[in-house]
Amino acid sequence: MQDLMRTGDATFVSTYRTGENYPLVCGPYRVPFLLNMAGSGQPVTGELYAVSVSGLARLDELKGISRGHYERLSITVELDNGDGDDGSCGGEGVTCAEAYYAHRSYAAEMWKRNGMKGLTVYSEKEAEGYVKRKDRPHNLTFLDHIQFFLHSKD
């Protein structure tokens, strides 16, 4: 995201949470995955960004959309301001955005492997649980906050 922000292709908006419950789990190597299983899990907190069309194309490439790693789909997110909003898209503090979900071909299995228990936020605590393996580069970190995206104009 920092690269996209430097090039003007993304702007941080604020911290939001999902309007519905969703599972957020740690997959292999402690990488966070949001699962498109509305109603399961709990509200998930993440960062909302306004991203250009070219920025979204770059993110799609990085997330492996064409390789079936993730899917970019709509999601309703809201400011966590305790105002009792009904959660309808367009209501005060409620935004229709997009998020990267684990690909549907393996989402249900990830949910089962995590004991059908999810996180509300992915933080340094979860990233620290990553155990280095000999077959992976040791300089990688996976502190990747959950992000939601709005389309902005190029």
Automatic annotation (TrEMBL):
**Which InterPro entries did the record assign?**
AIG2-like_dom, GGACT, GGCT-like, GGCT-like_sf
Q: Name one Pfam family in it.
A: GGACT
Which UniProt key words apply to this protein? Acyltransferase, Transferase
Q: Keyword check for Acyltransferase, yes or no.
A: yes
Decide whether keyword Cell wall biogenesis/degradation is in the record: no
- What are the protein's GO molecular function terms? acyltransferase activity; gamma-glutamylaminecyclotransferase activity
Name the domain of life. Answer: Eukaryota
Which parts of the sequence belong to the Gamma-glutamylcyclotransferase AIG2-like domain? Answer: 10-83
Q: Which PANTHER family did the record assign?
A: GAMMA-GLUTAMYLAMINECYCLOTRANSFERASE (PTHR12510:SF4), TROPONIN C-AKIN-1 PROTEIN (PTHR12510)
Q: What is this protein called?
A: Gamma-glutamylcyclotransferase family protein
Native source organism of the sequence = Lithocarpus litseifolius
